[in-house]
Structure to design on (213 residues):
């Protein structure tokens, strides 16, 4: 993991990097439980097994921890969705949809923490725009490889729509069983059907033409 830009001191040794990872993991759990305002640096230090002085050495204030977690989430989204986009051309639409749903399910807890921290971030608008651009860029790349005949404006609109469907997956995972499983299956079916229709579409077709038939 690269050192977050908000850190006061970047760890150079493996032990220091492991300590920072423990701090970030503890902070994510406490932010998820208590929110940004309710979390304290002393509680994060105690939960991570870190001396308070060492915590402040790496992260001089609570906002630096939040910034580091937001940066880490953006890096993970970029890496995971980018990897899926890179291999997507070799997958069928149902296979791609299944892997996409699995990815969004895995991101669920980190995404929930990131969304909560965004509300307290000093640059929330810029961070949201950055995340949106990252995700739409990777989905746009998927569609460019799978449906090269789509005009760029339509491809961009389709990428935004597919992302909105995929973002429902982490919310579905919070529902009680078996509804959580059923909702994820429906999201997967929607993604697969939309991908297949886009791949077969002509420039004049509407994405949802024929969905009801």
């Amino acid at each position: 993991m690269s050192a977050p830009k908000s850190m006061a001191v970047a760890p150079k040794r493996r032990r220091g990097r492991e300590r920072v990872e423990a701090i970030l993991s503890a902070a994510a759990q406490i932010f998820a439980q208590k929110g940004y305002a309710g979390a304290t640096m002393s509680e994060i230090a105690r939960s991570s097994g870190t001396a308070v002085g060492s915590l402040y050495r790496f992260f001089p204030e609570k906002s630096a921890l939040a910034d580091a977690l937001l940066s880490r989430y953006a890096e993970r989204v970029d890496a995971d969705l980018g990897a899926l986009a890179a291999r997507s051309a070799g997958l069928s639409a149902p296979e791609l949809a299944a892997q996409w749903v699995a990815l969004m399910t895995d991101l669920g807890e980190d995404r929930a923490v990131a969304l909560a921290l965004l509300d307290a971030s000093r640059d929330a608008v810029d961070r949201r725009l950055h995340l949106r651009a990252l995700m739409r860029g990777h989905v746009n790349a998927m569609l460019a490889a799978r449906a090269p005949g789509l005009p760029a404006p339509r491809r961009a609109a389709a990428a935004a729509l597919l992302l909105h469907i995929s973002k429902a997956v982490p919310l579905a995972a919070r529902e009680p069983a078996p509804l959580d499983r059923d909702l994820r299956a429906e999201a997967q079916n929607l993604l697969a059907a939309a991908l297949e229709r886009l791949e077969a579409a002509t420039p004049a077709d509407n994405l949802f033409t024929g969905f009801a038939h």
